[in-house]
Each structure stands twice: as C-alpha cells, then as structure tokens.
Design a protein that fits this description.
Layout: H1 2-28, E1 45-47, H2 52-55, E2 70-72, H3 99-107, H4 113-118, H5 121-130, H6 139-150, H7 154-163, E3 164-165, E4 168-169
Antiparallel strand pairs: 1-2, 3-4
Helix pairs in contact: 3-5
Length: 173
C-alpha cells in the first residue's frame, strides 16, 4: 500500500511540474494584444531611434540631449463637441400651451419664446400636427404672448393673459 501512495504522489508532482512548464511556455512568451478599436486610450509614446551619424560629436554640433525624442504613435483626436442648443424656456407659461403642446413644439425645434414668436401660424400648426395633436384654439395668440416674453415685458404679458380666456382673445377690456 505504501508503494501505491508513493507512486501516486510522484505522478501528481510530475503532472504539477509539467503543468507549470507548459503554462510558462504558453503564457510567458505571449505578446500583449493591441487595444480593441472600441476603447479610447491615450496613445503610447514610442522612442525614436537617433541616427548613428548624430551620435558622433562634431565641433559644430550642438550638445547632444540625454533624452531621446518622444513621438506619439498615433495622432490625437480633438474632443468632440456637441452642437450648442439654445436654452430651453418654459413654453408652458403661454396660455393654451400645455406639456404635450410644448413637447410637440420642442420636437419641431421651437425651444425659446423668440423662436415661437418668429414662427408663423402654419409652422406652429404643422409642429403640433406632426406630434399627433390637432386641437389648438389658442394658437393665434401664441405669437403675441411669446413676443412679450421674449422681450422681457412681463407686465404686458400679464395684461394680455388677463384678456384671454383659455388662451383665446375674447376682446374684453
């Protein structure tokens, strides 16, 4: 029985050493893989070899630098900038514009009071129809309200909205 245990330990030890040797041969000599194209890492600097003629000192040559010149392996891309979008204003302040109407206008590119004031009724109507909305009885007053807000005339805006009923001009004085 002792012979069997000694023989088994010897075989296990030999298999272990063989595994270490094979692992060292396979993994020890492995080169590192290049970075995948999906990752963005900084380019690794490479050292540019100096020509042998430059190593020979000449009386007219400048003193040799001790550091070899470092050159980037690949060009550095400038950071991408997103297009600047105009500030988003609360279009819901305008009588007759609720959250759905405001989202429809924003989807059409109308994000500010100035843009809403400059758009004509046809453009406004097309914007809300593209969003699947169809009922906007106060659409004709949106331009005047937006113009007052764009100009910063809060008093004029309040006076106009007091005359409106559900966003429509009733002509009350």
């Amino acid at each position: 029985m002792a012979w069997f245990v000694n023989q088994s330990l010897f075989i296990i030890l030999a298999a272990f050493l063989l595994g270490l040797l094979v692992g060292w041969l396979v993994w020890g000599n492995r080169k590192t893989a290049p970075p995948s194209s999906g990752t963005t890492s900084a380019p690794q600097p490479t050292r540019k070899a100096a020509p042998s003629a430059a190593m020979t000192p000449t009386p007219h040559a400048e003193p040799r630098r001790s550091d070899p010149e470092i050159v980037l392996a690949e060009p550095v891309e400038p950071p991408r900038t997103e297009p600047v979008e105009p500030p988003r204003e609360e279009l819901e302040r305008i009588e007759g514009i609720g959250p759905k109407m405001a989202n429809a206008l924003r989807a059409a590119g109308i994000r500010t009071f100035r843009q809403l004031a400059e758009a004509d009724d046809t453009t406004r109507r097309a914007a809300i129809e593209r969003a699947g909305l169809s009922f906007a009885p106060s659409l004709v007053t949106w331009g005047r309200q937006a113009q007052l807000l764009a100009d910063g005339d809060e008093e004029g805006f309040l006076e106009l909205t007091e005359l409106l009923v559900a966003g429509r001009d009733t002509g009350r004085a």
